[in-house]
Design a protein that fits this description.
five-stranded mixed sheet; two-stranded antiparallel sheet; Nucleotidyltransferase, domain 5; globular; 464 residues
Length: 464
């Protein structure tokens, strides 16, 4: 019986496949045994690899994104003028047979010849440098948080219940007390004098919580963790300076810098882990060529910084539509159909830092009362669940961000959301206008805060 063969069209005729390794790279330019060659991982070996590919008239190269071993090889091949396709390992899974490095590189070369390997997303050079700094900074913040938890553990072992009398152990009151404890000051009354004037607890209550058992082993551990906390704190400050200098240098080098400034947003306060020494409201506005991302109610400074460092304005141009961008973020359902019927429409597994940031922002949308995003969130949450509403709102935010940056559009909601600080400012202006006509605003019930209304009613009742 004669067997029929199926031929496939060759898309990349002059191409190579590389099996990336930790100690050596196997390169295949064909399916024969003589077409495979092994190279080392040193800088000299990578240059020899590039020259060998050029001598064989190779134009395109495909490789897997294996750990961090591909990065130096990728940069060297790009600098040598070759087209490099970096693909996910799930697309290069070999058929069921013996697995060797030689067979893997030949399989990658065969699939790349037929055009079956999609390219992974890679940011531009500026975004990649900013991403390295921001990811390193986030790791330092995680290490500092771990140190804070261990300091709190040693304080409990020493019978210092600082966590009961202060909200944050590493706040202004807590860190001064910990510093005094590490300086061998164990007197409760002396430690309570470090109380900040805004602290809710009195000095007497704080002194009751600071009676120690004076265990020297726990005290030694606390000193070690406090020194580690101060070290990571200084490291984060250095990262902040480096990021601010990098962004300012990038903006000054741009050919066209936006002259106007965005609207100030005092209602969007930064937390203690926010970027210090930089006005991200202005820098992000200039970084995205006049697009104010912070105008979206739930988008915070950390969300904007994550967006800048993970994808940037140039990275969005690699996505043809907002739907493809949401699909890349794995925020869109993956429809599996058979026989014209949808079998499954689950959200694909996996996440990146930008997806996590958008989901955190979407979670905050559920707390907004009078906003378009808040109404959308509550509609989805009522029909399905809060978890589904977070994913749907995160996808909506991704679509909004794509349209704003690629189309140079500003955020224009149907109903403008007004923050509490903006409401108080508007009420204060209204009170000032009313008082010019000789009318007491308190008498007609215009108060900027409910506590002011209660104080006014109490004062009136006392006078009567």
């Amino acid at each position: 019986m004669q067997k029929n063969s199926i031929s496939m069209q060759i898309i990349n005729p002059n191409c190579a496949g590389i099996d990336v390794g930790s100690r050596s790279h196997f390169v295949s330019i064909g399916q024969g045994s003589k077409d495979v060659r092994e190279f080392g991982v040193y800088a000299v070996d990578l240059k020899v690899l590039g020259k060998w590919l050029h001598s064989k008239r190779i134009r395109s190269v495909a490789m897997e994104s294996t750990g961090a071993y591909w990065q130096n090889l990728f940069v060297e091949l790009m600098n040598s003028g070759l087209e490099v396709i970096l693909t996910n390992g799930k697309f290069t899974k070999n058929i069921n047979r013996k697995k060797t490095d030689v067979l893997d590189c030949q399989w990658i070369q065969k699939m790349h010849t037929l055009g079956l390997l999609p390219s992974s997303f890679l940011p531009d050079e500026t975004t990649e440098k900013l991403r390295t700094l921001c990811r390193h900074r986030s790791k330092m913040i995680a290490q500092k948080a771990d140190t804070s938890h261990k300091m709190q553990k040693f304080l409990k072992c020493l019978n210092f219940r600082l966590d009961v009398v202060v909200r944050d152990v590493t706040g202004q009151t807590g860190i001064k007390i910990i510093k005094a404890i590490c300086s061998e000051d164990l007197d409760p009354l002396s430690l309570a004098k470090h109380r900040h004037y805004n602290c809710r607890k009195t000095e007497e209550e704080i002194a009751k919580a600071l009676v120690s058992n004076e265990r020297q082993d726990y005290l030694f551990g606390l000193k070690q963790e406090y020194r580690r906390y101060e070290f990571y704190k200084s490291m984060i400050e250095e990262c902040d300076m480096e990021i601010s200098e990098f962004l300012e240098h990038y903006i000054t080098k741009k050919e066209e810098v936006v002259a106007d400034l965005p609207k100030k947003k005092p209602y969007k306060r930064q937390n203690k882990n926010g970027l210090k020494g930089i006005d991200l409201n202005i820098l992000s506005y200039q970084y995205f060529n006049g697009v104010d991302l912070l105008a979206i109610p739930v988008v915070s400074h950390s969300t904007v910084l994550t967006f800048m460092s993970e994808i940037g304005p140039e990275g969005l141009k690699k996505f043809d539509s907002a739907n493809r961008f949401a699909s890349w973020l794995r925020l869109a359902p993956n429809n599996k159909m058979s026989g014209g019927r949808i079998l499954s429409n689950r959200i694909p597994k996996g996440s990146n830092r930008l997806k996590i940031a958008l989901r955190n922002a979407a979670n905050a949308v559920g707390n907004l009362k009078d906003s378009d995003l808040g109404k959308f969130f509550k509609k989805i949450a009522f029909r399905k669940s809060r978890q589904a509403a977070i994913t749907a709102t995160a996808r909506k935010l991704a679509v909004i961000l794509w349209n704003m940056i690629t189309k140079k559009e500003q955020y224009k909601p149907t109903n403008q959301y007004v923050f509490l600080d903006e409401k108080r400012r508007a009420i204060a202006q209204l009170r000032k206008k009313i008082s010019k006509f000789g009318i007491d605003p308190n008498g007609i019930g215009i108060f900027s805060r409910p506590s002011y209304k209660l104080a006014y009613e109490k004062r009136i009742s006392d006078n009567q």
